Amino acid sequence: MTSSLPATPALSRRGLLKFSLGASAFLATAGLGASLTGCSAQTPASGFISLRQSDLPILRTLIPVILAGTPAAEHLEAVLQRLDNKLASLSPAMLKLTLQLFDVLALPVTRGPLTGIWGSWENASIEQIQAFLQRWENSSLNLLRMGHASLLQLLQMAWYEMPESWARCGYPGPPKI
């Protein structure tokens, strides 16, 4: 019986390292390019402390999918305000990293290849967003897994801090003093 497996693996350890290095360089270059060309406005959107206008369509699309099964979509603007307050309390270094994550998701040159969402966030289907989240969650690149975890943690913290979420999870609220 003959084996149909190739004599050498298709992707060696060296090949994987080269791919990872290339992907990291691509992300760094795209982020730097966006910063230098002014593609990522650093001024907050009207009514926000940290969130920029380019961040809002991404978050308005992600919140109902990430927080599916909760009434968070009914309280979208309140969740965005809570998230904005959370971001404002981050250290400058952590805020910069978070905004860079949003830049990667906003720029078409990085959004398409990294998320599989080639059009605008507003036109993305729930299935496309779920596929993107699953792709990042299970990625072989640590950077994408960290981005996925950051998105989930930020949005979950913003939602579950709100009194509207407490009754659904059985939390009576903080003790009255």
UniProtKB/TrEMBL annotation:
This is Twin-arginine translocation pathway signal protein. InterPro entries: TAT_signal. It comes from the Bacteria. Residues 1-30 form the signal peptide. The keyword Signal applies. Keywords: Signal.
